[in-house]
Amino acid sequence: MAPGAGLTIANPIYREVLPRALTFTPDASMPRISPTWLDADGSLNPDRLLEAFIDFWRQHGEPLLGSAPYHEIAPHLVLMAFLQRVVNGNGMIEREYAIGRGRMDLCLRYGALTLGLALKVWREGAADPLAEGLAQLDGYLAGLGLDSGWLVIFDRRMGIPPLAERLSEEEQVSPGGRRTRVVRLQGDIDLLGILPKNRTERAAARQSMIISSR
Question: Which domain holds residue 118?
Fold first, then answer.
């Protein structure tokens, strides 16, 4: 138990093993991905990586969300599985957890590139987490000594807005003046067609999934 941060994974071995175990099913369900994010010299191009990730999510995100074992963190697991394919033994992913406080930070290291990411979830009835996410990313990037990074927002609201509006990318400047690529993704299994049409029944079914995943 870390002061002010809730439960944390203290053992560094478990910090790596547990995420690998949780992402096993999404990773096994994932199709072969061509490494279009690599330059001719083998270095990782972050702009191409972002394009590849958004295209991947548009094509495969919804079915992979359904394959993840814990629905409440399904978007996080799918993203981590994708990034694990990216590093593919040639880099590493560092993770910082505070799921109970609605946050997760990832650091991708590949050759000379270090990329910091903050993950946020936009839940039903909550305000847009953009401002909070920018502040979260600011602190994380400061610790890494970086002046730019990604903020990934999973929109888990039910039914609104349409899928096309939930997939977007824009550039923002954080409160600390850091260049931030804000990526908004549909992150709810509602669009998979496995929840009831009625809003009340759908909410009850979704809550049942949350309880069963604990």
Answer: 12-212
- How many domains in the chain? 1
Q: What is the Cα–Cα distance from 75 to 121, expressed in whole angstroms?
A: 9
- Strands in the chain per DSSP E: 91-98, 103-110, 113-122, 148-155, 168-173, 179-186
Compute the distance between CA of residue 41 and CA of residue 54 in angstroms, rounded to an integer. Answer: 23
Per the domain annotation, does 6 fall within a domain? no
Q: What is the pLDDT of residues 24-65, one digit of tens each?
A: 555 555 556 788 999 999 999 999 999 999 888 887 766 666
DSSP conformation class of 192: G
Residue 104 is assigned to a structural domain of this protein: yes
Give the residue among 157, 182, 191, 180 at the shortest CA–CA distance from 58.
191
Q: Is the peptide bond before 63 cis (omega within 30 degrees of 0)?
A: no
Is residue 1 a part of any domain in this protein?
A: no
Give the whole-angstrom CA distance, residue 11 versus residue 137. 24
∠ Cα 74 43 48 (to 5°): 50
